[in-house]
Amino acid sequence: MKILVTGGAGFIGANFLNLLVPRHPEHVFVNLDTLTYAANLGSLEGIAKADNYRLEVVDIVDFEAVDGVFTKHQPDLVVHFAAESHVDRSISGPRAFIKSNIEGTFNLLEAARKHWSDGKGLFHHVSTDEVYGSLGDTGMFVETTRYDPSSPYSASKAASDHLVRSYARTFGMRTRITNCSNNYGPLQFPEKLIPLMVLNAVDGKPLPVYGEGLNVRDWLYVGDHCEAIWKVIGEGADGETYNIGGNNEVRNIDVVTEICSIVADLTGKTKGELEGLITYVKDRPGHDLRYAIDATKIRNELSWEPTETFETGLRKTIKWYLDNPAWIEQVRTGEYRNWIEKNYQDRG
Ligand code: NAD
Ligand code: DAU
């Protein structure tokens, strides 16, 4: 099978390729990525020279270029990760989210429709639980929960989900959608909560917690997400949506204190010293209070189960960041520093 993976140089896409390229030498994996600030080819060093791996540096906003990749590689399957993914960036600059997440998904669907006239190709769309909006203190998101996105990011992902469904209903395209909760693990760009807090703790910098730190996220180890996507591709049903989550709700403040505890354990700093870095800052506008995924459908229908607990996964993740200073140096480019300075300073 020829598999077109979009966004394969980002956090989840790179974990997906690192897992599957060596495991499946019988498939060819083509990574289509425009290499934004969030991409890092250093994340793919282990597979870059594999016989069954190719890289195409292409922007999904450019239809002609996307069409060219379809003509050249004739994929049977698209696994669509490419997106602008950070909520805070979508607040300070939403345009790129509309372009990449909505127009880019539309271009991929159009190219797939043109090249898959035999109706055999499969389009797997990777999406998020944020499309469902915010929960109060109780309840969980199921696949039929009404869409109610809060940020430009989640609204753009919701629009892309609707487009994918429309291509299934209108054009008969074979599609599947997965909506997953918060991922964490190796290779995550340090603008997101967990890697940002780990690196700041190691550097003795403030740990900026939004509002009172009482927002709840449902954390899933990235490897478990990748295995779930592969299972849906292999065993799921066309036209269906599957929620993926770890059944692991944690308040932000508890995530941060747990990070302090593990970093202290691994570096010889004290937990008290690190907790002293916690700084409560101005809340994110439109900040969703709580996410919780009900993953009963994928568990029951496809026998998928996460393998990492939050304790084992978080320790593994922090150890990875401590053991990979070269990767961290690569992502800390001038652009990263500029953005952090402009947007994450003076948040008090
Ligand atoms: P990321 O920001 O780490 O990586 C995104 C990748 O997409 C980068 O390599 C980037 O270069 C590429 N990309 C962005 N715009 C592009 C464009 N116009 N053309 C080609 N490539 C482009 O994101 P991530 O955290 O790995 O998320 C991957 C996908 O999973 C996204 O669709 C996201 O919405 C979804 N998702 C993420 C999470 C999470 O917790 N991170 C949870 C659920 C779903
Ligand atoms: O739920 C899935 C989503 O999870 C994905 O679709 C997104 O791509 C991914 O970025 C993530 O979105 P969040 O907004 O939940 O993740 P983030 O790491 O930005 O923030 C997690 C929580 O931590 C959130 O409640 C905001 C809070 N936070 C975040 C940062 C960066 C802080 O308190 N301080 C911070 O500095």
Ions, cofactors and other bound molecules? nicotinamide-adenine-dinucleotide, 2'deoxy-thymidine-5'-diphospho-alpha-D-glucose
Task: Report the sheet-strand fraction.
Answer: 15-25%
**Number of helices, where a helix is a run of at least 4 consecutive DSSP H or I residues:** 13
Assembly form of the protein: single chain
Amino- and carboxy-terminal Cα gap = 52 Å
Task: Assign an overall shape.
Answer: globular
Helix-strand pattern: EHEEHEHHEHEEHEEEHEEHHEHHHH
Secondary-structure content class: alpha/beta
What is the strand arrangement across the widest sheet? Answer: 3-2-1-4-5-6-11
Unreliable stretches covering 5 or more consecutive residues: none
Helix content: 40-55%
Sheet having the most strands: 7 strands, parallel
Number of strands: 13
Average pLDDT, rounded to a whole number, is 96
Rg: 20 Å
